[in-house]
Write a structure and sequence with these properties.
heterodimer, A: Rossmann fold, 2 domains, B: 528 residues, mainly alpha, globular
């Protein structure tokens, strides 16, 4: 099946600033794809290039089989966008803003609009000036989710929503997935990404550092082991891929590169395992690994 | 009193925030009043000139309704007081309204007051501080007006009376504004309330001044004017103004106790749950964004047109004889009245051009606020987006010019007792539209090609204004004058209609707009 989004070697410069520096991203049709990266990594810039708002400096970007810059208007009929910081017209009511954005796109599903207003518990008669940040976000979400489109581009869509509304949002995305729509979800809320996304792409400083399904990515990281053995477990430092080792008598705890997990467990069984707990890496650890200071260390090495 | 805790800090904070705006506003106002006094001195050099002028004004009820009752036009001070007593009171009222709005409701609406109120700041402190600041500003206004006139050798009593009448009116409307910001939840809504009170005061005063004067006593502007500066001053109306301001301020404090921070006494009316069909078209939406501005400009220029029409036929005696008047106005071989009307219509059309520029630059502010992005992420193309704003600018400017022409035409038709003057002046005003469009097109070219420099469109407007007024006086060469599109519009009704320059101007406007659209289609949104 053709990719809904395929981006390769995308570069966008603003003056001397290289916001995107050879970014790659591919989103298959029908999948929910997580788009992660620290602040300023280039997530919003990428989405704006995909929307044809910004013109790529170089590189290739294809969206729903079209050119996001040249075919912007035709493509926009087939997609909906939710920005992370929704700015509305102070004098318009929420309902008017939803209709405006929906109709300019080519129409809204009336039944779905009513249903979403109910689910998000949004009063459409309030003037946008009086909405809180969360309510402005809901306006943009209802406008996007109530339109009959193939692709949703969501840029931190749940910022400002309460946990209850986040739950509603997740249900809505599940509905979209069942309906076969493609979703690009940029988010900082890892639990959200873990719960919703089939595949994720992690970017950093305008470049893709990791992409794949969550289980693929887990293979690239470490598992935490904590073990109690009958005999003291010998010299674990001789093994490869062991980190943060902490040994006291019969107990040991350490992180092990997933590639070396098998070797480590074989080593331990020789000393008689009394109890063993292993924790797969959370997305958070994945995230921190790519965002934190570790990368410069590795690059230095 | 704990509810006033932090007032002193708030006063210093408010004073700091106003340290540029208020002095500039006061300087402009005093400068205008002083220049009126200077002109009054030089225009009517002889007693005969002045007597003719006074007779003309006294015989023109329309002018009296517009400006106010002339008590003594035979002195420079009395003439200045007549010209500025009412208009100046309105200026002072608006200044006070904006100061009050900014420091009270504006702070609440932005959410900043919440941050301040969460620290050790009493509930009444923001209003108390605003009251102190706005009182100080109006006292300052009274003093600088008085001292500048005394500096021009005008009698001290009259100078202080005129200053005090303006400051007093400013103070009274500060009180009105303080009450209004308690009532309405938005700054704009509060300004609407003050504007309505101000408008009613103006109309009551106008009706009273041409009638037996009773209605004028219902109007605070009437109170200010009844101090009769330079004409046997009366001081007690100042007490009415100050007492009114005090009562209104106390009422504001009382109302404050009955409302929450951030809320108004009147809950905001809910808006429609659905958008109308018109709103969701690009043109309808752009029109909605600019509707209030369009109505305001059309109404303002209608009034300006009326004032022009009321003075037009009497221009000979009102302006007197001078070389400057001839140079500025006698640009064709037509009559002085028609030349005066033609030049004045051009200058008012230039003022009305502000709407056309505003309509185009609105795209830029939508873009910077992040809302343009939401619109362009739909199936709205950049061309249609720009086209909608341009269409509002083009159609809106025709409407505004028509309002100007109708105002001037009706007043002039009555003054000259010639109904044919209405279509003539209406046509003369509307014929200026292509020149307005050129500036709108230039604004769009800037938005498309140099978005960060887009506010330079206001500079173009200012340059056209200078060319219109200074050009003839300084005898600038033709090629310099030709830069302004307004130079190319035939000076109707003094000259004959020539369609060719109008078509050329329209073509230039279209070309500039096209360049702007091409630029917009090629650049990033938002532009950084």
């Amino acid at each position: 099946m053709e990719n809904a989004i395929s981006v390769s070697g995308l570069v966008k410069t603003f003056g001397s600033v290289r916001a995107l520096d050879g970014l790659d991203l591919s989103v298959a049709a029908g999948e929910v794809h997580g788009f992660l990266g620290p602040n300023g990594a280039g997530k919003s810039t990428t989405i704006r290039v995909l929307l044809g708002l910004l013109r790529a400096t170089s590189g290739e970007a294809r969206l729903l089989g079209g050119d996001p810059w040249r075919d912007a208007v035709a493509l926009h009929r087939r997609l909906a966008y939710v920005p992370g910081d929704v700015s509305l017209w102070p004098n318009l009511s929420g309902g008017e803003a939803i209709d405006l954005l929906g109709r300019l796109r080519g129409g809204l599903d009336e039944r779905r609009r009513a249903e979403l207003l109910e689910r998000f518990d949004l009063n459409p008669t309030k003037k946008a000036r009086t909405y809180s940040k969360g309510n402005r976000q809901k306006v943009a979400l209802v406008a996007a989710l109530a339109s009959d489109v193939e692709l949703l581009l969501l840029d931190e869509p749940t910022s400002g929503l309460d946990p209850l509304m986040e739950e509603v949002f997740r249900e809505c995305i599940e509905d979209e997935r069942r309906a076969g729509r493609t979703v690009l979800l940029s988010s900082h809320i890892l639990a959200e990404v873990e719960a919703l996304c089939d595949r994720v792409t992690i970017i950093r400083a305008g470049r893709t550092v990791e992409t794949g399904s969550l289980s693929d990515l887990r293979h690239l990281t470490r598992t935490s082991i904590s073990v109690e053995t009958v005999e003291p477990a010998g010299d674990l430092t001789t093994l490869t891929g062991i980190h943060d080792l902490d040994v006291t008598d019969h107990r040991a705890s350490f992180d092990v590169d997933t590639a070396n997990l098998d070797e480590a467990v074989r080593h331990l069984t020789r000393f008689g395992i009394r109890s063993l707990t292993s924790q797969p890496p959370t997305l958070e650890e994945l995230f921190l690994r790519h965002y934190g200071d570790e990368i410069p260390h590795e690059e230095a090495a | 009193m704990s509810t006033l805790a932090g007032t002193v800090t708030m006063i210093r904070f408010a004073a700091r925030r106003e340290r540029v705006r208020v002095p500039v506003y006061l300087l402009v106002m005093v400068g205008l009043i002083a220049s009126t006094a200077g002109q009054s001195e030089s225009l009517y050099a002889t007693a005969a000139d002045r007597a003719e002028y006074a007779q003309t004004v006294n015989g023109n009820p329309g002018l009296i309704a517009l400006v106010g009752p002339p008590y003594d036009l035979m002195s420079v001070g009395g003439d200045t007081a007549w010209q500025w007593g009412g208009i100046g009171a309105i200026c002072a009222a608006l200044m006070s309204m904006f100061i009050v709005g900014r420091h009270t409701r504006g702070e609440e609406q932005s959410g900043r007051s919440e941050l301040l109120r969460a620290s050790v700041l009493g509930r009444r402190a923001p209003i108390a501080a605003t009251l102190v600041i706005v009182t100080a500003v109006n006292v300052l206004l009274a003093l600088v007006v008085a001292l500048s006139l005394i500096g021009m050798d005008q009698p001290a009593a009259g100078s202080f009376a005129l200053g005090a009448s303006l400051g007093g009116a400013g103070l009274l409307f500060a009180g009105v504004a303080l009450v209004a910001v308690q009532v309405n939840q938005s700054t704009g809504g509060a300004y609407g309330i003050v504007g309505a009170v101000l408008g009613a005061s103006y109309l009551l005063r106008a009706a009273g001044d041409v009638g037996d004067g009773t209605l004028s006593w219902l109007s605070p502007i009437g109170w200010a004017q009844s101090m009769r500066p330079f004409a046997d001053e009366r001081w007690w109306p100042l007490l009415l103004l100050v007492a009114g301001a005090a009562v209104l301020s106390l009422a504001a404090f009382a109302l404050l106790e009955r409302r929450d921070d951030g809320a108004g006494l009147v809950a905001p009316r809910p808006g429609p749950a659905r958008a109308s069909g018109v709103l969701t078209t690009p043109f309808g939406f752009a029109l909605r964004l600019l509707r209030a501005a369009l109505i305001g400009w059309a109404f303002g220029l209608f009034l300006a047109g009326v004032s022009l029409g009321l003075t037009g036929q009497d221009v000979q005696s009102l302006l007197g004889d001078s070389e400057e008047v001839d140079k500025l106005y006698m640009q064709t071989s037509g009559s002085l009245v028609d030349n005066y009307l033609a030049v004045s219509l051009s200058s008012m059309a230039l003022i009305g051009t502000a709407f056309a520029i505003q309509a185009v630059l609105r795209m830029r502010s939508e873009e910077s606020a992040g809302r343009g992005e939401s619109l362009l992420a739909t199936a709205l193309s950049r061309t249609r987006w720009a086209g909608a704003h341009l269409a509002v600018a083009v159609a809106g400017s025709v409407l505004i010019l028509a309002a100007l022409g109708v105002g001037a035409g009706v007043a002039d038709a009555i003054a000259s007792d010639d109904a044919g003057r209405l279509p003539l002046l209406l046509g003369s005003a509307v014929a200026l539209a292509p020149a307005v469009w050129v500036l709108a097109g230039a604004a769009l070219a800037l938005v498309g090609l140099a978005p960060r420099a887009a506010p330079a469109a206001w500079g173009l407007l200012g340059a056209c204004f200078l060319l219109l007024y200074l050009g003839p006086l300084l005898s600038l060469p033709d090629w310099v004058l030709d830069i302004s599109p307004f130079t190319h519009v035939p000076l109707l009704p003094a000259a004959d209609l020539d369609v060719v320059p109008l078509l050329v101007l329209s073509g230039v406007a279209v070309a500039l707009a096209a360049v702007g659209v091409v630029g917009l289609r090629r650049r990033d949104v938002p532009a950084v």
